[in-house]
From TrEMBL:
<dbReference type="InterPro" id="IPR023606">
    <property type="entry name" value="CoA-Trfase_III_dom_1_sf"/>
</dbReference>
<keyword id="KW-0808">Transferase</keyword>
<dbReference type="InterPro" id="IPR044855">
    <property type="entry name" value="CoA-Trfase_III_dom3_sf"/>
</dbReference>
<dbReference type="Pfam" id="PF02515">
    <property type="entry name" value="CoA_transf_3"/>
</dbReference>
<dbReference type="InterPro" id="IPR050483">
    <property type="entry name" value="CoA-transferase_III_domain"/>
</dbReference>
<dbReference type="GO" id="GO:0008410">
    <property type="term" value="F:CoA-transferase activity"/>
</dbReference>
<dbReference type="InterPro" id="IPR003673">
    <property type="entry name" value="CoA-Trfase_fam_III"/>
</dbReference>
<protein>
    <submittedName>
        <fullName>CoA transferase</fullName>
    </submittedName>
</protein>
Length: 417
């Protein structure tokens, strides 16, 4: 078991304390948006199907009975309640809860929320200042509105796969669901902006986010290069299209990264790192523009030189010269590193079945303190009884009656299919 921190104390007010979010989303983009809001202090109530819960409770490696590594990566700081939204009773409970919530978040297929009775106009009639965030695959006003959105498909359609990987290899997807992740973060930004505006105007807002739109945004400067060139820019893998040397190299005993971003850094690199002043004195390599033009002769020479030195010696010299550099670590090695441990980026929290579970800490630091993990990713329906009794004053007998109808499950009690 890696040496990880336990939960940190946090003695400041959380920015979204007092805000309530009804998170009807599942899988990745929506839950990640909800997690960001929860990290900032919002009370996020995740609504899940009574039997299967969020789809990602069955993705990745199993933790306990109802959680997985995939699910846990985007559901910290939330409570989970179970409701069958296709039942009249489940829908009625959503409407009963609605007046106490500021934000509704979902990622149903376009039109799906309206069919359930949970569309923006339907909910706005009961909560005029509601902030309603709907995440879909494509533009809700376009011809592809009803197409389901999947990260891998969008990576292909947006050109992201075409810019990733080595030029000699086929298009390559990113290692994580980048489009989903960025859509979740963009959605959280939009919700925060809408909450800020509501403080001034008292008005709610409809927010619509599309995976395809966000995928296009992720192409960033490569996308603008393609427009200027009138064709796809060349793929460089770990290298950089306009900075040389830049990328992953092999030392005598392992891989490492260097990024020689300025001519001054290259001068130091040649004179003090690889001890070859003649290279920088060659006019073909004196400026970055010339180095980029002559990369095919420079890079093989640099690659061969770097293989002659131990990695730690190279990193020491590079750091002394102020040249950005670092080891290439394995994923487990990075997560268990002293850097990660000291930053408190992973915490080991109690789990009712597994004994303990690793949870990523929020990346945000406010006033010098990392935001806390207030709740580990919830087991399925762990908050059903507490939340519905606290917010709706439902009695034990009322909850039992709803459970008997399959509308919800109470903690530790799961009905058959």
């Amino acid at each position: 078991m890696p040496d990880t921190h336990t939960a940190h104390t946090y003695d400041q007010d959380l920015p979204l304390e007092g805000i309530r979010v009804l998170d009807l989303s599942r899988v990745f983009a929506g839950p990640l948006c909800g997690q960001a809001l929860a990290d900032f202090g919002a009370e996020v109530i995740k609504v899940e199907h009574p039997v299967r819960g969020d789809d990602t409770r069955d993705w990745g490696m199993r933790i306990g009975k109802t959680e997985t590594t995939y699910y846990n990566s985007m559901n910290r700081n939330k409570r989970s309640i179970t409701l069958d939204l296709q039942s009249p009773e489940g829908l009625a409970l959503i409407y009963d809860l609605l007046p106490q919530f500021d934000v509704v978040l979902h990622n149903f297929k376009c039109g799906g929320a309206d069919k359930l009775g949970l569309g923006y106009e339907q909910l706005k009639a009961h909560k005029p200042d509601l902030i309603y965030c709907a995440i879909s695959g494509y533009n809700s006003a376009g011809p592809e509105a009803t197409r389901p959105g999947y990260d891998l498909v969008i990576q292909g359609e947006s050109g992201l796969m075409a810019l990733n990987g080595e030029a000699s290899q086929p298009p390559l997807k990113f290692g994580v669901a980048t489009v989903d992740m960025m859509t979740g973060m963009y959605a959280a930004q939009a919700v925060l902006a809408a909450l800020f505006r509501r403080e001034r105007s008292g008005k709610g807002r409809l927010i619509e986010m599309a995976l395809y739109d966000c995928g296009i945004m992720v192409t960033s400067y490569y996308g603008l290069d393609a427009l200027l060139l009138g064709r796809d820019p060349q793929r460089y893998g770990n290298a950089h299209p306009s900075i040389v040397p830049y990328g992953m190299f092999e030392a005598a005993d392992g891989p490492f990264i260097i990024a020689v971003g300025t001519n001054t850094q290259f001068d130091k690199f040649c004179r003090q790192v690889v001890i070859r002043p003649d290279i920088v004195e060659d006019p073909r390599y004196a400026t970055n523009i010339e180095r980029a033009k002559n990369r095919l002769t420079l890079l093989p020479m640099v690659t061969a030189l770097l293989r002659e030195f131990p990695r730690d010696l190279l990193l020491q010299r590079l750091n002394e010269c102020g040249i950005p550099c670092g080891k290439v670590l394995g994923l487990h090695e990075a997560l268990t590193s002293e850097r990660t441990r000291q930053g408190g980026l992973l915490q080991n929290l109690p789990h009712p079945v597994a004994g303990s579970t690793h949870v990523y800490a929020p990346p945000y630091r406010l006033d010098g303190q990392r935001l806390p993990i207030r709740h580990a990713p919830p087991t399925l329906g762990e908050g059903t009884k507490d939340v519905l009794q606290r917010l709706l004053q439902l009695s034990e007998s009322e909850l039992r009656a709803l459970q008997a109808k399959g509308v919800l499950t109470l903690p530790g009690e799961t009905p058959a299919e």
